[in-house]
Amino acid sequence: MIPREKHILMLQRMMRIRFFENKLIECQKAGEIVGALHTYTGEEGVAVGACVALNDDDYIAGNHRSHGHPIAKGGDINKAMAEIFGKEDGYCKGKGGSMHLADFSIGILGESGIVASSVPVATGAALTSKLQKKDFVSLVFFGDGASNQGACHESMNLAALWKLPVIFVCENNQFAVTTSYKDSVSVDHVSDRASAYGIPGVLVDGQDVVAMYEATEQAVIRARSGEGPTLIEGLTYRYEDHSLGLANVRRDGNYRTDEELNDWLNRDPIEIHKKFLLSQKFATKEEIDKMENDEIIAVDEALEFARKSPYPDAKQLFDDLYTDPINFA
Amino acid sequence: MATNIFLPQWGMGMQEATIIKWLKKEGDAVKKGEPLVEVESSKVNAEVESSVDGYLIKISADEGQVIKVGAIIAYVGNKDESIDVEENALNEEKSSPIENSAPKTEKLKVQVTPIARRVAKELKVELENVTGTGPNGRITEDDVRGYAKNGATKEDSNLISGMRKVIASRMTQSNLIPSVTLTSKVNITNSISFQSNLLKEWRKEKIRPTFQDLIVKATSLALIEHKTFNSHFIENEIIGSEEVNIGVAYAIKDGLVVPVVKGAQDKSLLDIAKDIREFSKKEKAGFSQEDISGSTFSITSLNSTAIDSFNPLINPPEVAILGIGRTSEETSFLSGEAVTRKICYFNLSFDHRVVDGFPAAKFLESIINNIQNPESLDKK
Amino acid sequence: MKNLMQVEAINEAIHEEMEKDEAVYYMGEDVRASIYGASKDLFNKYGENRVLDTPLSENGFIGAAVGSSLVGMRPVVETLTSFMWVAMDQLVSQLAKMKYMFGGQASLPVTIKADMYYNGSMAAHHSDRSYPFFMNMPGIKVIVPTFPEDAKGLMKTAIRDNDPCIVFVDGNLGGLKGDVPENSEIENGELLIPFGKARVVKEGTDCTVVGIVNSNVHALSASEKLEKEGISIEIIDPRTLVPFDKETILKSVEKTGRLVVVDPAHKVCSAASEIISVVTEEGFWNLQAPPVKVASEQVHIPFSPALEPLIYPTEEKIIEAVKKTLE
Hints:
The complex is a heterotrimer of chains A (329), B (380) and C (327).
Chain A: H1 4-29, H2 44-52, E1 59-62, H3 68-72, H4 77-84, E2 108-111, H5 118-131, E3 138-143, H6 150-162, E4 166-172, E5 175-176, E6 179-180, H7 194-197, E7 201-205, H8 209-224, E8 230-235, H9 258-265, H10 269-279, H11 285-308
Parallel strand pairs in A: 1-2, 1-3, 3-4, 4-8, 7-8
Antiparallel strand pairs in A: 5-6
Helix pairs in contact in A: 1-2, 1-10, 1-11, 2-8, 4-11, 5-6
Chain B: E1 3-6, E2 16-22, E3 29-30, E4 35-41, E5 44-49, E6 54-59, E7 66-68, E8 72-77, H1 85-95, H2 97-100, H3 114-122, H4 141-149, H5 161-175, E9 179-187, H6 189-201, H7 211-225, E10 231-234, E11 237-240, E12 246-248, E13 250-252, E14 255-257, E15 260-261, H8 269-285, H9 289-292, E16 297-301, E17 320-334, E18 337-351, H10 357-372, H11 375-379
Parallel strand pairs in B: 12-16, 16-17
Antiparallel strand pairs in B: 1-8, 2-4, 2-7, 3-6, 4-5, 6-8, 9-18, 10-11, 12-15, 13-14, 17-18
Chain C: E1 2-5, H1 6-20, E2 24-28, H2 42-46, E3 51-53, H3 58-70, E4 74-80, H4 81-84, H5 88-96, H6 98-101, E5 111-116, H7 131-135, E6 141-143, H8 148-160, E7 165-170, E8 177-180, E9 199-202, E10 207-211, H9 215-228, E11 233-237, E12 240-242, H10 246-256, E13 259-266, H11 271-282, E14 292-296, H12 315-326
Parallel strand pairs in C: 2-3, 2-4, 4-5, 5-7, 6-7, 10-11, 10-13, 13-14
Antiparallel strand pairs in C: 1-8, 6-12, 9-11
Helix pairs in contact in C: 1-8, 3-5, 9-12, 10-11
């Protein structure tokens, strides 16, 4: 049984991601932020269900679609927003930006702009848990596109071989930029590949945050007991294009239809979970409205924080490259 | 729009000059024609004038710096005007008269090792004076140190570079001329006596006659007759001159200048002597470009030294030069009687592309004849 | 003082560091069997939890080393330079960039022992000398030991360093013998050689010869021959390329006025290129002659024993280069 407060927490975090991303879309359209922006709207159920099933001292790592994971893990949206604005008070002092949010203090080992590149890293964190006989697990998010990278296969083999406490979470949002996973993955489901490594492969409805939580919980139990990794595939959909602005790029035809998008919009993870909470009487309509209002305010405050934070000083350009600075001048 | 002040080209052969002293500073008001800066070049201390009324808004050449002819050295414009020096530097390239009109001279590219350059700067050695012993004649550190050790440079060598460079370049050019030097031992006993006689005569003019005065006059007379030697040879063309302008090489501190006795064909011996005395006065103040340009023939004298005979180098585009050695005494027997004579070697170098040996010999004979009959010098 | 081969000195360094710090573990292909010699007796002594034989998945296990270092381990990874190409994503996108990209949050005490087996008829796929690639990548420290003492001391320093270090070990030097001090002979009881400090291998007056890895051995034999002709060279081993001790080299060039850099990497954008660039930029006014680069020819390593030796720097090429600077 999932405790009530976890159910509430999951709704709250999904809302936070949604409002955070929508705010960024506004800022991007207004030209206030620069660089690439890969939004997570539509996929909230996957990251939130997975992260809420973890302990605070467990680790996660992610990818370029990077804002949802740290928020799901409980990251500070002020620092996240400031980082996306390239400001000094950002998570990475403005050096990482949108694709590289990280908060080592709460187990967020960082997002990676190279797809699948975080998979070996998370596997390595799990290796530490095993070698040091610790109890923590690590969990890595990657997409259906990344599942075709060698790094994924090498890591799954290694983790299975060494029985490492790592959970591989494939967020199958169905498209690698514009290429459908059906045109790039040789099996019906990414999770089918688990059998090749002798590990469990679980296909989950990613729009159902509770289902994601439950699948992850099982994988965590397995990992902590030393039985090794699990591959979870959360079937989901991104509401926006691969990155904002891509819709404006002249391209040949549409890779997905309005009809398809509408079908998925009708299965919105936040709405599904709201209905679930109401039906289970975990929350009233008023409580949910209040929560929603609070999250909107929190995101507005994060935006204010980011806007007010100074840009990093030129003196910081060479900081943090090495522990002891090396002068290349 | 600011007006560019360029380094002018004063006379042929001037390619660069050293900035000596700025007479105006940035921000000063200047009038058209007002001197802005003292510049040393081609044996001249000259002043560059402002070509417009306005304010000196930017100086772009430092004192001591060697500047190419046609380069921008300053900008004159409105009081608050600023100037984009980089943009103007491009224009400067285009407008450089050196690039457009001056004859192209092959510049010898000499390799110099970096350390040799550095040491040369430290020891104030002009690298063009150093002979390289490395591969391809590369100048090495040892070459520079060796040159410096032999005392070949002076502390202030960089300041006289303008003059030294001009001399170096002129003499290098000169050395390319296929020249022949004719030498004749001349009995000048008569002229020395004549010089003594003149002494009393010129006292009221406060001028002491010199042997050089006589030589210049004697040469001037010879040049009227032998016009080929009173000419310039430029690009295979002999350009004769009605004016007899005799350059008289003049040793000064750190180098030599060749001031010119202008219109010598119309001048008496005394007039010529007066001209030459003026040169001595100007040595300190500096010669004007006017003083030193336009010579059609040159005379160089080592009369006051211990040199008997030498091989003078032509001052191009002139076609010949007369070199005078020291005066010495010689005893010979004339009809069984010992006679002491004053003698002096006359050396005439001439451009064999222009004239041949026989006419040159005739020309020299003419000079000798004039000097040995000094009375004629005073009459004409 | 003891006389050790380079490979023994490195093995000793790893033993000492694993003994000292439980966070240090050793991983790579066939390391338990110690087929390259450096991991001899590690498995017997430290067991399966600290000496890991990996699948043939360099990108996977180097990435795992990276991840494990983020949360408390100090991995030492053994691989061959030629196999690092398949792990470039983890080496570059993660190992090199993580610390900076995350605003200093990551600590990456990873040591990669990268063996370079070249000049042994192994053809192009197994003869790489890839340190210049990593000099070009900020975030990595590039260690290039030559002599056994330095190999041991630099290896120990690398394992203790909190930043990513790649120790490029020249396979031709594995058997090179040299004196290595006993720990009891050293003041702090341990042989730790600081990064960014070059070794003056031999003092001389006429020409500075900077050698990378095996080149120092060639430079020493060249030196003996040149000595007979009255030419005295100063040999300098930078020991680490990042950080780089330019002061020692600039000082030497100030004395000799001449520079030859010998580097077994391909000559275009080699370590030699960088060193010559530094000296021409910063030591230009001390140069008596143009610096000379003696590096490998810009072509792949051919298999045939008739062709391969033509590629690399040799004693003869060094002698010729030194003489060229003295013309």
